[in-house]
Sequence to fold (129 residues):
Amino acid sequence: MGVLAAAAGALVAVGLVVLIMLVVVEARPAEATFPGKAGKIAYEGLDGPNGDFEIYTINPSGGSKLKLTDNDTGDNEPSYSPSGNKIVYSGEDGPNGDYEIYTINAGGGSKVKVTDNDTQDDTPSWGSS
Fold:
């Protein structure tokens, strides 16, 4: 019985650790991505107290942020291209629309709509080529 009780206790402990890890992963308030040592951090940030989320970049040491998107819909989940020149993100397609995938230059400019359909397209990331 002692061996079974010890095994059951170990399983409970492992289960608690996994549960804590899931809570920590799910409790993150914002998304950010970092292209490397010399690059900037890209993140989604709330645009004012009653606003939507926009895509920003900032230096790793802090300082002024650069607002890349500016609209009345949510822009989320930025991810840098392997070169660090572009950012891919999901953006709401109108106030009551679904999410589509967009790209934008890392320094700002016009966005490019990559997907255009009636389904949710989100959580983009760049793969290696």
